[in-house]
Amino acid sequence: SDFDLIVRGGTLATASETFAADIGVRNGCIAALGTNLGTAVRVIDAEGLFVLPGGVDAHCHVEQESSTRIWTADDFYSGSVSAAFGGTTTFLPFAAQHRGQSLRDVVKDAQERCGPKAVIDYAFHLIISDPTAQILGQELPALIQDGYTSFKVYMTYDQLKIDDRQILDVLCVARDYGATTMIHAENNDVIGWISERLLDRGYGAPKYHAVSHPRIAESEATSRAIQLARLVDSKLLIVHVSAPEAAEAILAARNMGLKIYGETCPQYLFLTAEDLDRDGMEGAKFCCSPPPRDAAGQEAIWRGLKNDTFQVFSSDHAPYRMDETGKLKHGAGATFKQIANGVPGLELRLALLFSEGVGKGRLTLNEFVALTAANPAKIYGLHPRKGSLAVGADADLALWDPKWQRTVTYDMLHDNAGYTPYEGMTITGWPRFVISRGRVVVEDEALQVERGSGSYLQRKPEIVADGLREPELDPARNFGAGLL
Ligand code: URP
Ligand code: ZN
Ligand code: ZN
Ligand code: ZN
Q: What interface predicted TM-score (ipTM) does this complex get?
């Protein structure tokens, strides 16, 4: 036959267009788009379905040990399976450095763990918590050239945070070797100062997590990070934005033409700080950083998805169970300072944004594809192989039934967090088929592939101008032109 697979009769949507076409798949790639494509080993009838590029989740913590030595509840198998059921066919978890570790070792460990387990394609961001001269001068440049072209740094968490000088160092390496820096922007001293005052007065309940992480801690750090990136003319993506003032700072920077990008996540559209005030320790389920804000804040984040403040919509999946292995490591009397930060969201990311965004007229279908697949693929060096429906691209498809309505229960999900923050929500629009490189991964609400059948995605650094690789030879170029 002409193809391995034909997806027939669906409505295709990319980041820019919506059109009717059949897709012919050969050797895992999209080989033809059109009608009357011919014969295939298998034909999937996509009548009534949207055929979307598979989702790209560019921010998730999977099989990762936190700075306080708690492992995420998901490993690369359960995490990737959960992603696949939600329509995501590419994910980018973190290879996280603890201080004192070599980045090389961290990457090797992540690769060895993920290879035998992942059922979808993957690449890794690094987390850099210890930018020594050796790391900045040798390991990191070499790793970027090997394809580890994105890394996250933290302005908060005592075991992870780097200071402004170190941020400048990392930004310069990213700029000179063609990588992208991601930043967790919250002011550590503000958080620490408020936390101490709360705990001194006996305010330790989960809801005080939100009190101790005020919007100003986020917006101050966001503005500072933007200025640091501006100083050295380096690209910077602010992850998991929740505060309206932080969103405003990002939009203002973008309007100035700076290479600043923004990411937000489901928890900032669908949860509020009031969720942290549920009975007993229930609020711990919703403790993440930055925390969910209020209804007006949610509206600001929706606006940011529409007005290009945010290019990327990721899950920031950080699954910790409500027991001694996770959120309640320090028992039921733990203070908000001792509760592992993070919420699960890999599986529901697309369905939540589709249902409440596209379904309720807040976003177009094309904006949805841009935010959840095309833009993250572009920003992280995976486009057009991922996030598009072009001939030659990987045949990664989510065949989306826009009318399928289900009420969320944890039991229908495939992660190992033990709960979902979105329990009880009614969502309209779910994937019927999920296809990764031409393989049907999910069909009939069942997994169809083996452990370890996903592939590592080799990336390339962005091309940087000649002469920028030895910045110390030309100090003036180290500081954005016109800023001295
Ligand atoms: O609370 C969160 N988001 N935990 C995950 C780690 C991070 O900072 O993204
Ligand atoms: Zn470790
Ligand atoms: Zn973070
Ligand atoms: Zn995160």
A: 0.90
Q: Cα separation of 352 and 368, whole Å? A: 11
Q: Which atom of ligand 1 is nearest to the CA of 318?
A: 5
108: left (phi over 0), alpha (psi -120 to 50) or beta: alpha
**79: CB partners within 8 A, 6+ apart:** 60, 62, 63, 72, 91, 93, 317, 319, 346, 415
CA of 125 to the centre of ligand 4 (A): 11
Residue 424 φ/ψ region, left for φ over 0, alpha for ψ in the -120 to 50 degree band, beta for the rest? left
Q: Which atom of ligand 1 is nearest to the CA of 184?
A: 8
Residue for token pair 């055929």: 51
Tokens standing for residue 182? 């991601």
Give the residue ranges of DSSP H helices in 178-243: 188-200, 207-212, 215-231
pLDDT in tens, 339-369: 999 999 999 999 999 999 999 999 999 999 9
Note the ligand closest to the C-alpha atom of 67.
Answer: 2
Q: What does residue 344 show for φ and ψ, rounded to 5 degrees?
A: -75, 155
Give bridge partners of residue 52 from the DSSP assignment: 398
3-state secondary structure of 475: helix
CA distance 131 to 150: 15
Q: Which of 72, 316, 336 to mutate to test the pocket of ligand 1 (most atoms within 8 A of CB)?
A: 316
pTM here is 0.96
Q: How far apart are CA 293 and CA 269, in angstroms?
A: 9
